[in-house]
Fold these 2 entries.
Entry 1:
Amino acid sequence: MKRWKLALITAAVFALVLSGCGNGAKTATEGTGTNTNEKSAEQTTPKKDVKIKMFQFKVEIAEALNELAKEYEKESGVQLEVETHGGGEDYSALLKAELASGSEPEIFNNGGYAGLVPYMDRATDLSNEAWAKDLIDTAKAPTTVDGKLYGMPMNVEGYGIIYNKDLFAKAGITEEPKTLPQLKAAVEKLKAANITPFEATNEWWSLGIHLVNVGTANQPDPKKFVEDVKAGKATFKGNEVFKQWLDLVNVIFDNAQKEKMTTDYATQVANFAAGKAAMMMQGNWTQGDIDKVDPNLKLGILPLPIGDKEGSVLIGVPNNYIVNSKSEHPEEAKAFLNWLVTSETGKKFITKQFKFIPAMTTIKAESGDIGQVAVDLQSKSSTALGWYWDLFPDGVTQGFGAAMQEYLGKQINGDQLLEKLDKAVSDIVKQ
C-alpha cells in the first residue's frame, strides 16, 4: 500500500471546489479480486424493469437518495432500493449480516484499504468505467488493488470543530483559536457568557473513528504508527502525541452539554443548529441537516489542535461504492453509478442535495451548493491531515468507540483509555 499523499488531496480539494479541475491515478493496497468488467459504462446497456439495491451508511443523505432513486427510475426504468444503516448503528456488522443471510445488494459502501480485504471476492473491477479517468488522483487510493480500481469514491470530506460565529461574537471571541491554549481560552469566554461551549455525541463512530484519528494523524509518520501498533511494536499508551491528545479530548468532554451520554448524532446536529452550543466536532456532511433547522446560521470550522502547535482539519475519502459481483444485476449497478456522476440529474443531487465536495474532476461544485462549512474547510486544506482509520482491521474502530464511550461517561481514566485502545487492536490482530 503506497503512502497517503496528503499534499495531493488537499491541493485537489482546493482546486476542485474553485474550478473543478484535476486528474490522475494511484495505487494503494495489495490483494486480488474479481475482474468482471472489461467494458466501459458507455458500452453497457442496462436492463429495464429490474430492481437493484444499495446498502449504504450515509444517514444524512438517506432522504435525498430516495428522491434520487425516483428520478433514476423515471429516466432509466430501473428501480433503485436504498437501505440505510448508520448513525448509532454498526454498519459493518449489519452489512456482514446482510450478506450472511443470502441477500446480495448490488451496491454497498466500503472505506477501502484494510476494510476492503474481506469483500474482495465480491468487489467488481471498475477500472474501465467511463468515469474512472475523471477521479481526483488520491480519491482512487483506498480501493485501488494491484493497479485496478474496485470502488467509486463517494466524495471528499473533512472535519474539525464546527462553530457558530454569532455565539463566538456574543462571547467576545474575535479570532479563531488555532492552538489548544487558545481553544481553552475561547471555552472560558463562552462559559462566562453562559454559552455551552461544545455539543458532544455518544456515537461510537464519531468518538472511535474521528476523534481517535486526530491522535493518529498527528504522529510523525501516521501510516508507520498504525502498522507498528498492529505489529505490537508501538502502543497508544506511552505515546507522547496521544498523551497530549487526551488534553484535547478532555477540553471537549468536560465542556459539553450535561446530556452528552445520551446524545446521538441527529440530536447533536439539531441542538447545535438550534444554537444550544457554540461548537461541535463534526464535518461538512452535517451542512444539509443544519440548514434544515436554520439555513441562515453563520458557520466556520476550526482545526483540532494538540498542544501548543497550530491544529489542522482532517480531510479524506469517507467511503466508496462497491459493485457486488455476486448480486443479480451488477451491470445495472454499474450503469447507475455511471449515471450518478455523468447525468445532469445525478450531478445536481451530488452537489446541491448531498452537498458533497465531488471526487470527480468533471463535477463542478459552487460555494452556494456545498455550504459554508465545506468552503471554510477548503480554505484550511493546505495544512490538513489525513484519515487513517481504515488501515486498521475491521472491528478495531468499534473497540476504539466502546473505550471512548466509557471515557465520555467517566467510567475509566486516561491511562485506562489508552490501554483499551491498545487492547482493541491486539484483540482483533490476534484472531
Entry 2:
Amino acid sequence: MSGRDNRSHSKACNPRSNSKQFARAPNTGGPRPGEAYAALDLGTNNCRLLIARPSGRDFTVIDAFSRVVKLGEDLTTSGRLSDDAMERTMSALAICAEKLRRRNVRLARSVATEACRRASNGEAFIERVRRETGIALDIISAEEEARLAVLGCHILLESGEGPAVIFDIGGGSTELVLLEPGEKIPQILDWQSVPWGVVSLTDTVGSVNTDGLSSKDARLARYAEMRRVVSDSFEPFANRIAKAAACDDIRLLGTSGTVTTLASLHLELPHYDRKAVDGLIVPSSSMRNISERLSGMSPAERSELPCIGQDRADLVVAGCAILESILDLWPAKRLGVADRGIREGILRSMMAAERQGERSRQSLHDARADSPQQSAAG
C-alpha cells in the first residue's frame, strides 16, 4: 500500500469552495433566529456530529455526538466494510438523524472519508444510509478532507511568521498540509495524504518476526516497523518540504485523537478535558517521550491509563508511530493541539457561504435602489 503523492501549489483554503452542501430549509435570504447548521463526519473509526448556531463570525455549539464505530475494521485485509461494522455505524447514524430532526437545522453537510473511499461496497453503504436514515453522505476526496481540517483548526496555529504544517491523523489515512507563512486565511502550498491511520496501520502491521524476543521487545519491534512503513510513505512529501523544514520558527499543529490523548497524558489529567487540551502548545520532546513509553507497554497497561481506556489501548500506538514520523520530517520544537477539525471546517464553510450570499443579495438590492431607472419608476 503506497502513499498518495499529492500537492496543491498556491491553492487557497477558501471557505467558499464548490463543495457539496445539503439544504434542509428553503434559502430565504439568510438564517433566521434559532436556525442551526449541522456537520457530520463519518470516519474510519469514529462517527461525529456537531450542530451549531451562528454567533457573530463564529458559532455556538448546541448539540454534539461522537461514537467509536470502527467502520474500517478489517477493511485492510478484506477490501470491504464488514456487516458488523456497518451495523454499528447505522446505529450511531440513527442517533444523528434523530438529533437533526429535533433541531431547527437550516443547512447540513455530512461527509464520509477514507473507509468509504476505499471499500468496494462503500457506495452501496452510502445509499443504505440515505435510504434508512435520510442522511445524504458525501464521500469526499483526501484533498477536500485536508482542506476542511485546515479550515476547522488553523486559528489555533501558534503565532509566528515561519512556515507551518497542519496534520490530521485519522482512522484510515493521515493528511499533511504545508501552509504559506504569514497569511490570515491559510494558503495551501503543498499537501499529502497517506493511507495510514490508527486503524489501517494497526491492521496492516499486525506482527513482525519476534523469534527469541521478550514481550516488550516484540512490541518495540512492531512499533519500529510501523515507524518504517509510515516514514517510507511520507518520504516524497518530506523531500519536497525539506527546505521549509530547515527554516527558523517553523510551526506545527495536529488535529486527531492521537494528539489530544497524548496531550492529556502530558497534562496528567485524570479524565479528558477538552477545555484544557484544545489550543494547548506542548513541547515536541514530551510527545516523543510519551509515544516511546506507550510503545513498550502492553495493551492492558495502556488501557489503565487515564484518557486511553480499552477503545484506544491498541490504536494509540499506531498514532504514536505516525506522530513521531511527522516530527521527523517537520522538527518543530512545539506542537499545537486541536480538538477540532473537519466538522468545524464544514460549519465555517457553510456559514461563510451564507454570509457571502447575504452580501451579494444586499449589493444587488443597493444597486437596484441606486439605479436611475428605478428612481424614475418610483
